[in-house]
Amino acid sequence: MKTILFIFLTSMFFLSNAQEDLVRLLINKTEISIHKLQKEIIAGHISTEKKNELSLSIKYQVKAVEAFKNNQQNIIMAINYSSKAREIAIDVLGNYNKGLTEYFIFNDGEKQLQKNADFLSQKNSLMIDSNQIEESILLSAQELSNHYKITLN
Question: How many CB atoms lie within 10 A of CB 58?
């Protein structure tokens, strides 16, 4: 009986770690999509009129990182905030060049995380500060990383 209980508890732990790893991947891939959007705006491939979307994406991602780092109870919020951030980045990137979004499209594992977190019904109620980030920070990779934590690394 003790062996069965140990195996059960061990499998629960690994399942939790596997889910945590998927959430880490989701957050880190979203961070890459944000940097890609930033680079495309800086390079002039995407209009600077899209700075507001970049700013929103960053703010959602900051919330995702904070939620993930706070504790496991906020894992659902981390999934939802990061998914919203990437959704914005994909939307802008895709409007300018569909080829830019292929890597960032949500994979099956991420879609399952979103389903478990009820992302589709929650995404419009996620709250962030809507003030735009200063352009000098927004359009500088170094300044952005100095002021905003958008990655788990």
Answer: 25
